[in-house]
C-alpha cells in the first residue's frame, strides 16, 4: 500500500494554488488560502480566511 502524498502546483489565472494528491484515497486537497487569494485578490488572504471562519 502506498500512502505517499504528492504536492503539485496549479495555476489559476496567474495565481499558484498548492494542492496535494492523496494516492490512497485518490483525492485532491487544495490550499484554501491560495484559492481565496485567487478569487478575491485580497492583499491578506490569511486574514480574509480567518474573518470568514469566524462569521
Task: Write a structural description.
The structure is a single chain. With 55 residues, the protein is an alpha+beta fold. Helices cover 35% and strands 36% of the residues. The protein is built from 2 helices and 3 strands; from the N terminus they run E-E-E-H-H. It has a 3-stranded antiparallel β-sheet with strand order 1-2-3. A hairpin with a 4-residue loop joins strand 2 and strand 3 (27-30). Helix 1 (32-40) crosses helix 2.
Q: Any descriptors?
A:
36% strand, alpha+beta, 55 residues, flat, 35% helix, three-stranded antiparallel beta sheet
Q: What is the typical, i.e. mean, pLDDT?
A: 83
What's the alpha carbon Rg, rounded to whole Å? 13 Å
Q: What kind of sheet is the major sheet?
A: 3 strands, antiparallel
Which regions contain 5 or more consecutive residues with pLDDT less than 50? none
Strand content: 35-45%
Considering DSSP H and I runs of 4 or more, what fraction of the residues is helical? 25-40%
What is the spatial order of strands in the main beta sheet?
Answer: 1-2-3
The SS-based structural class is alpha+beta
Number of helices: 2
SSE topology string: EEEHH
The counted number of beta strands is 3
Distance between the termini: 41 Å
General shape:
flat
Structure in a nutshell:
The chain has helices at residues 32-40, 45-54; strands spanning 5-12, 15-22, 27-30. It is α+β, with helices and mostly antiparallel strands and 55 residues long.
Amino acid at each position: 500500500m502506498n500512502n505517499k502524498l504528492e504536492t503539485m502546483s496549479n495555476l489559476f489565472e496567474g495565481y499558484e494554488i498548492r494542492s496535494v494528491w492523496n494516492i490512497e484515497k485518490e483525492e485532491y486537497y487544495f490550499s484554501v488560502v491560495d484559492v481565496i487569494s485567487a478569487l478575491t485578490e485580497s492583499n491578506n488572504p490569511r486574514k480574509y480566511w480567518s474573518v470568514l471562519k469566524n462569521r
